[in-house]
Design a protein that fits this description.
2 domains, five-stranded parallel sheet, alpha/beta
Length: 434
């Protein structure tokens, strides 16, 4: 009998969005890695666990990956609702962000991490400010994260110029190199807030460090028109001219796309992140996800920041992503439940170039979630994946493990003191003076 650190046992195991559920399933974990996943009756023949977690009504699934957010913007949740993106950003968010400090960003990030863990999120992609503080919080709490300092043509609250932000990015790459859960990315904000030279410098750094580039792209019709006015082509073709399009580009939103844009994204193997709830709330439009998928583009799912969503709940985001195009196209077959689930698991892992995340199988990282199915709204259950997408709520999440470490056990956060956090938040809101 082999010794393992954990044996997580449940009523149902979903190891992959396209695989049949295993009833009476379990996952064996040693260190930060899954040793085996399958029927409990088989695993108990081979493994003895230092700790066994029995969830008789538990649905065990891969940890959810939020492929785009601005974690610390949770400090501005509800600050400026029901406004167009440009007005919301320039008249409200940018002025509020001018008051930020590294300490406030750290506090906001911890609050965001608490919410994401409770929603079943095990990893997130963050573009924001004072990212070294974000990394320190993530390191302490235990989530997995891809973090990038926002790069702008104009001064940000943390740096005087985009070039300084790129220098900070390089410093962060050196500081956090080799960390098992933290990856540093290069994050030029948008094509309209970064001049071409700054975008080229971002690409050069990403190439030199084999890093991902994260950028908001074609989010609105206004952006499309503005870049066409300035550059004579669409935002997608503008980035292609500059050499940014490729399989290591994570393009966020991609709402305002032509057929040629979609074809170009597919040919360059660009990875797209769909943020339906934020796009709907800001009236930016709806990304052509069915067309992107049909063209072969890898599409992941993100919540965006809590200032524009207004939550970090991937359960809700999956539900919206699965239903949105059904209504628009009047076709109930579009974006099936397994497709929506894959956008926060296997497709998210592919978008991030991680072959060891997104499913529960031998050799994969031990990032997993247990949902408590013993709820009136989750019974009966004929199709567990359908229930995850269309029925389950964040409050149903019972356990969260990242890299073999329990971050929430039986609904109790193990690495965050929620009482202390909320007390600190009250003082921070007073300090912000918003």
């Amino acid at each position: 009998m082999e010794s393992v650190d954990f044996l997580i046992c449940g009523e149902i195991l979903i190891s992959h969005p396209d695989d049949s559920p295993i009833h009476g399933g379990a996952v064996a974990v040693r260190g930060d890695t899954i040793v085996a996943a399958g029927p409990l009756s088989e695993l108990t023949k081979s493994f003895v666990a230092k700790k066994t977690i029995n969830r008789s009504s538990g649905l065990i699934l891969p940890g959810l990956i939020n492929s785009h957010t601005h974690a610390a913007m949770i400090l501005f949740r509800g600050l400026a609702d029901d406004l167009p993106l440009k007005t919301w950003l320039e008249d409200h968010i940018f002025p509020a962000e001018a008051r930020l400090t590294s300490e406030l960003v750290a506090l906001g990030t911890e609050l965001a991490c608490a919410e994401m863990i409770r929603c079943g999120t095990t990893g997130f992609v963050d573009m924001y400010l004072f990212e070294d503080s974000v990394a320190s919080v993530v390191d302490r709490i235990g989530l997995r994260a891809w973090l990038g300092e926002g790069v702008f043509d104009f001064p940000s609250p943390s740096f005087s110029s985009g070039e300084e932000a790129l220098k900070e990015t390089e410093r962060l790459m050196d500081k956090w190199k080799g960390h098992p859960r933290i990856t540093i990315t290069v994050d030029p904000h948008t094509p309209y807030t970064c001049r071409p030279e700054l975008l080229k410098h971002s690409q050069k750094l990403a190439e030199a460090r084999d890093a991902l580039i994260v950028i908001h792209l074609a989010e609105t019709e206004w952006e499309n028109a503005e870049i066409r006015r300035l550059c004579g082509v669409s935002p997608v073709k503008h980035l292609d001219r500059l050499g940014l399009l490729g399989d290591r580009l994570l393009a966020i939103h991609c709402v305002s796309l032509s057929e040629d844009d979609i074809s170009l994204l597919a040919r360059r193997d660009v990875r797209v992140v769909h943020c339906p709830e934020s796009n709907l709330k800001l009236a930016s439009g709806v990304a052509p996800v069915p067309e992107l998928l049909e063209a072969g583009v890898t599409v992941a799912l993100g919540t965006d920041g809590a200032a524009s969503n207004n939550d970090l709940d991937l359960m809700s985001e999956m539900d919206t992503a699965a239903k949105l195009h059904k209504g628009i196209k009047k076709d109930p077959t579009l974006i099936s439940a397994p497709e929506a689930f894959s956008m926060v698991t296997t497709r998210a892992a592919k978008a991030l170039h991680r072959e060891d995340l997104g499913c529960l199988s031998e050799g994969y990282k031990a990032d997993l979630v247990v949902v408590d199915m013993n709820q009136v709204h989750l019974r009966p259950c004929y199709n567990p994946v359908s229930h995850l997408v269309y029925v389950a709520r964040s409050g149903d999440v019972q356990d969260v493990m990242v890299a073999g470490r329990m971050l929430m056990e039986d609904r109790v956060l193990t690495t965050i003191d929620e009482g202390r956090l909320l007390e600190g938040l009250s003082r921070a809101v007073e300090k912000l003076g918003l």
